[in-house]
Amino acid sequence: MDAPHDVVIIGSGFGGIGMAARLLAAGVRDVVVLEKAAGLGGTWRDNTYPGAACDVPSHLYSFSFARKTDWSRRFPPQDEILAYLWDVARKHGVLPRVRFGTEVTEARFDEEAAVWRVSTAGGGELAARVLVSACGQLNRPALPAIEGRDSFAGTSFHSARWDHGADLTGRRVAVIGTGASAIQIVPEIAPRAGRLTVFQRSAPYVIDKPDREYRAWEKALLAAVPALHDLSRARIYASYESRALGFVKYPGLMKLMSRRFRRTLRTQIPDPRLRARLVPDYPMGCKRILLSGDYYPALVRPDVELVTDPITRITPSGVETGRAAYDVDVIVYATGFHTSGFLAPMTIVGRDGLTLDAAWRDGARAHLGITVSGFPNLFLLYGPYTNLGHNSIIYMLESQFRYVLGCVRALRETGLAWIDVRPDVQDAFDRRMRERMRSTVWEAGCASWYMTADGRVVNNWPGFTFAYRRATRRPDPRHFRAGRARPVAPARSGPR
User: Fold this and answer.
1) How far is CA 484 from each of CA 410, 413, 473, rounded to the nearest angstrom?
2) Residue spans of beta strands (DSSP E) within 54-194
3) Where is this region: Disordered (predicted)?
4) CATH numbers and ranges of domains, the chain
5) Residue 341 has pLDDT above 80, yes or no
6) For position 331, what pLDDT does the model report?
7) Residue 338 scores a pLDDT above 80
């Protein structure tokens, strides 16, 4: 086998591109990014459905080290976010290090050589001293287990695999799901479809989205005076961070935001019967709060119908509930993602043959959401306990970049072959997370994608993002077991 690379990163979304950029800036040159698709971008490459956009303002949904002052809108659309990621990859030297069309099937820690042996779907293999998973939490579409789903004779697809060849003009379209993707899709396709039927299992909380285009003079001013961009970013951060009080400390404060929801609903839905069906039956914040200024107006169109009866089955001609049958030509599954597997479907094997599936049989666990005991020199980005309900995940990722970079530096400077977080440290962190999670709104009595099948919330960070940044400011040597390096062949200076 070729000499091991210093760092191999799996995935080229925000996590993978940002981590590679920070490593290169710190002088770690032998970095390889493995991407299973033909292009980079992660979720912003995959989700190209009509209306796809971010619900975090653009000035905050971007890297602090890669300022962009010419966003077209306050809330960035999918195509601009994807273009931004390509731009960052080019300007920071990441793009030449990305191997496209390279899907990782297995990574196995070779204890004798102290490297990760990474196998790919094409039969290739490479070695890495450090392995970073930047796969994200929202990358594997979930299709509902509905009887007869495969029998449908028309066109059907998941929102994250949008069929741009399907002409919806004048067609009878069903959208199954009313989550973050659906509320963006419905307003976009309603004017084109002949008839749109929206199947709602659980009503979401939707509040108005204060979106608008940036004026030319605003963009010019931001470019000319960088401090204004920094000030805008800080102001948005502070505003969003304050919401953590309601999510993680005092759930009763969510009643204040609930008033905003009810005001939006009352203003945009004049029919009291329809309005009643759009009121959630769980506390606000327990599931993801959605932002939209046009979802509710789309539901009052005469050619749009909201169905709240449970779907019993799908037939060759459409969708059936216990009360009615709906003949449709196209079914769009806006049904979310598999969110608790993190590194699935890859096989990850650590020390003593321990598989990640076995280590996580009772739920995903990782110290600070980054390191897993028994898996030396493996680092997760956007792992367990690092998702947010109130702020920008980019801020969390940048905290993780610094922590991982600190670990890589420690390995290089001390001559260690590997570091492995101690099991007692990981267990103590996991206990703290479970204890703190009990007071959060996410455990207030609803089922959400934040939860495992047994009801544990393992996705979200139960605290302030600045507290997470403080906790990850540098790796603590006392938290790790370590092994000394053996002589190895010199690493290459760059990718092949």
Assistant:
1) 12, 12, 25
2) 98-99, 104-110, 115-120, 125-133, 155-158, 172-176
3) 477-496
4) 5-140+338-484 (3.50.50.60), 149-212+249-333 (3.50.50.60)
5) no
6) 98
7) no
